[in-house]
Amino acid sequence: DWTPASFVHETIEQLKKQIGDAHVIMALSGGVDSTVAATLISRAIGDRLHGIFVDNGVLRKDEFEQVLATYQQLGLNVKGVNAKQLFYNELKGKTDPEAKRKTIGKLFIDVFQQEAEQIKEAKFLGQGTIYPDVIESVSVHGPSVTIKSHHNVGGLPEKMHLSLVEPLRLLFKDEVRKVGLELGIPTDMINRHPFPGPGLAIRILGEITEEKVQLLQAADHIYIQGLKDNNLYTQVWQAGAILLPVKSVGVMGDERTYEFTVALRAVTSVDGMTADWAHLPYEFLANMSNEIINNVRGINRVVYDISSKPPATIEWE
Ligand code: XMP
Fold first, then answer.
1. Whole-model pTM?
2. Helix, strand, or coil here: 277?
3. DSSP characters for 73-92?
């Protein structure tokens, strides 16, 4: 019967056989799946795994540095690539959600490919594909096609003559988490909420600027930290802040303000296909509103999204 320990043991043996003395390249996202997959591969082949983690400019506050530190702690051979300005430049003037997604997906492949080409010994491409992704990629309905688009490095395997290594292909999410714990991956990493590939770019409605990213990062950070401090983080499936393209009037001291609104979102869900808005305590929401408005200059109004999916979606774009 299946246990995390037996899975880890058997998978490492299989990976050793499959990979031999070749090298593997892999795009890491900071998410649970790619981290667990990379750790397994690394246990099998050590530094012949070459991880690449791209800062696309629309990660959460301090996420790039923190995730890289965790990779280091896990002994993974990972290169962090700061490509922020490239992404900001290309996103300039784009307001359509799908155009933003396409831009980010394409740039990501460009950056990854450039890095991958420098690793000439690579014969394999590692991926954190899990069982639900396998099913999703053969179903044709709706937005599920775009899910994980940032992991999907397009025609890259064929183009670079790479074979796939996907050690989690038969696992469900809860099993991936158990395997991760077995591998000694920190619980903070294991319990992370899902985060979309296009990141904060689809949580800034309309055009993206570096200033707006910083504004949203600051508000989102207060909210996520608040959820953690109040033991609410693991009770919701996904949470985040959304920067709305509306300014409204407020008052601060004797002055009138005219600033942005942030929407807070938190949902409970099993798989993201359907979701209920999370009934967070009023007092918590009141604290978050105060903390955000008092600490983030440029935001003078906070609202809470009470829409469920369907008919709403989890993301606003
Ligand atoms: P929606 O908004 O469709 O989101 O209810 C369902 C889940 O999918 C995530 N999501 C994405 N993930 N690329 C991704 O990697 C995307 O373009 C994308 N759009 C939505 C969303 O965060 C939620 O977990």
1. 0.92
2. strand
3. HTT--EEEEE-HHHHHHHHT
Tell me if 193 CB under 6 Å of ligand 1. no
To test the pocket of ligand 1, the residue of 315, 316, 317 to mutate (highest count of ligand atoms within 8 Å of its CB) is 315
What SS3 class is residue 165?
strand
Element of type H or E holding 100: helix 97-117
pLDDT tens digit sequence for 192-214: 999 999 999 999 999 999 999 99
User: CB count, 10 Å around CB of 52?
Assistant: 20
Contact present, 197 and 105 (Cβ < 8 Å): yes
DSSP single-letter state for residue 60: P
Using the mean position of ligand 1's atoms as its centre, give its distance from the Cα of residue 147 in Å: 6
What are the sequence ranges of the domains in the chain? 4-190, 203-304
Instruction: Phi first, then psi: give them for residue 279, nearest 5 degrees.
Output: -85, 70
Residues in the chain: 317
Strand partners, 163: 124
Measured from the Cβ of residue 4, the count of other Cβ atoms closer than 10 Å reads 16
Lowest mean pLDDT across 126-135, 191-200, 238-247, 281-290: 126-135
Where residue 148 falls among pLDDT bands split at 50, 70, 90?
very low
Name the token pair of 40.
């397994």
Tokens read off for 295: 């600490």
CATH 3.10.350.10 fits 203-304, yes or no: no
For domain 4-190, the question of CATH label 3.40.50.620 is answered with yes
10 Å Cβ neighbour count for 56? 24
Alpha-carbon radius of gyration of the chain:
20
Q: Which of 210, 176, 170 is nearest to 191 (CA)?
A: 176
97 lines ligand 1 (CB under 6 A): no
